[in-house]
Amino acid sequence: xxxxxxxxxxxxxxxxxxxxxxxxxxxxxxxxxxxxxxxxxxxxxxxxxxxxxxxxxxxxxxxxxxxxxxxxxxxxxxxxxxxxxxxxxxxxxxxxxxxxxxxxxxxxxxxxxxxxxxxxxxxxxxxxxxxxxxxxxxxxxxxxxxxxxxxxxxxxxxxxxxxxxxxxxxxxxxxxxxxxxxxxxxxxxxxxxxxxxxxxxxxxxxxxxxxxxxxxxxxxxxxxxxxxxxxxxxxxxxxxxxxxxxxxxxxxxxxxxxxxxxxxxxxxxxxxxxxxxxxxxxxxxxxxxxxxxxxxxxxxxxxxxxxxxxxxxxxxxxxxxxxxxxxxxxxxxx
Length: 334
Hints:
Helix content: 10-25%
Number of helices: 7
Distance between the termini: 38 Å
Number of domains: 2
Number of strands: 19
Organism: Albimonas donghaensis
GO molecular function: RNA endonuclease activity
Strand content: 15-25%
Structural class: alpha/beta
CATH class of the largest domain: Alpha Beta
Protein name: Putative mRNA 3-end processing factor
Order of helices and strands: EEEEEHEEEEEEHEHEHEEEHEHEHE
Domain Metallo-beta-lactamase: 22-141
Largest sheet: 7 strands, mixed
CATH architecture of the largest domain: 4-Layer Sandwich
Shape: globular
Radius of gyration: 20 Å
Strand order of the largest sheet: 7-8-9-10-11-18-19
């Protein structure tokens, strides 16, 4: 069997004929294999959801236990027979529970990356490259301009600003799933052991992370606090930093933790005083290195700057094409 026969693009999303399932479908289907819990990959309404135990827990927390007629948790690294294919979920390093979907049938192997990063993250298992014939890769930051700095350097910049401005609160815009928990864990690793304050929208998933064994230290919801938040660190969804919620904070330094903060104009447009280039996606060098590591001769590119990465693949003698799947709106602020 050719590797390209393992996957095909349909209106519902990426279809795997030998397994009889869709991978990260864009609309409800009978059977969905889901790479991770972000809403542009995990949508409610499918009859059956197959994912890692962590992603199942996150999906149920976000959408409720009745959002899927049935769920099946597949531990990472454990092969599962599904139809005429063997499916294995392998860590993707994106957020807690994120996984690549490895499809094997007829002597061929395809890997669907979902979203991934190569940088170390204390809140999730690291990415594991898988040799394959066909590699479906994301390209959120698939342009050479995107090269992410070490996260420790960005955390050091944040803490230096906190020390230099003790009369102000530092308010960080961070996506509710993955980015917020990673920022908290990186702050703990850098020695910040004080209470970190949260917008209410971040509390639920931080609680899920704690239940799944990811320690985040002392957290408290921002309620009526005002002057007592001087010198403290507050996390909230990016949208909250420009609404009434932020007005209760004492002279906040508006920060944003995102790979998009590499683009100065984007930071300026969003009123960000302290941009922090912290991404949960692979940068250009990591994308190209990963493609090389897989040894895949056929590469499908989706979710981002598809054309640039396809051109790079062509220069390497690889057969590449863009998939132009719908989605990624939920992660625009990441």
